[in-house]
Known about the structure:
Blueprint: E1 3-7, H1 11-16, E2 26-30, E3 35-36, E4 51-52, E5 55-61, E6 77-85, E7 87-88, H2 89-97, H3 103-106, E8 112-114, E9 119-120, E10 130-135, E11 138-144, H4 152-162, E12 170-172, E13 187-192, E14 195-201
Parallel strand pairs: 1-12, 3-8
Antiparallel strand pairs: 1-2, 4-7, 5-6, 5-12, 6-8, 6-9, 10-11, 10-13, 13-14
Amino acid sequence: MKIICIGRNYVEHIEELMNEKPDEPVIFLKPDSSILRKNRPFFIPSFSNDLHHEVELVLKIDRLGKNIARKYAPRYYSSVGLGIDFTARDLQTKLKTKGLPWEKAKAFDYSAVISDDFIPLSELDPGNISFRLDINGSTRQKGNSKQMLFPFDELIEQVSKYFTLKTGDLIYTGTPAGVSAVQINDHLEGYIGAQKMFDFLIK
Length: 203
C-alpha cells in the first residue's frame, strides 16, 4: 500500500504558508508505517516543537491502473475517507531552506491519520464535499472539495503518470486553510458533512 499526498491544493492554504501556487500537483509519499488508525492517540514526536494538523479528504484506490486518462479516473475510486497529514513544520521549514526533501517532516511514524470508515461517493457529490476538523470543540479547519485547484479526477490522472496505482493505495488530496500547532491533550474530531470520521487525543 502506498500513501500518496498532495500539497498546495487549496489557494487559501497556499497563501497562509506564503507558498507559490503550483502549475501541477505537488506530490510526496508516506510509508505504511505512518498510518494511524482506530482513533488511537497521536504522540507528538520529540524532534518537533511545532507539529501541525492538516485535515484532508482521502481517496481509496479500487483497482490497478497506470497512465489513467482523466475521463476514466472515476473507475479507479468509489469512496472517500478523512485523514490528517501531521507535519513537523519547524523541521519542514529547515529542510526547505536547505533545498532538502521533506520526508523527515512529513513521513514519520503515525503521521497519517486515517478514518476507519469510507463513504461511498454514490452518496456524495464529489465536486461538493464539505469537511472540517474540530479541536477541543471548536472548528479549526473547514473546506470543500469544490475549492481544490486539482479535483479528484485530475489528481488520479497526474499521479498515475508517475506511480502505478494499486488496490488499497490512499491519496491524501490536500488541506484547506487553518493549519496550526497541536498541543498535548488536544481533542481532535473530523467530519465529512455531519458524519464523524475520527475522534482521538494528542499525547
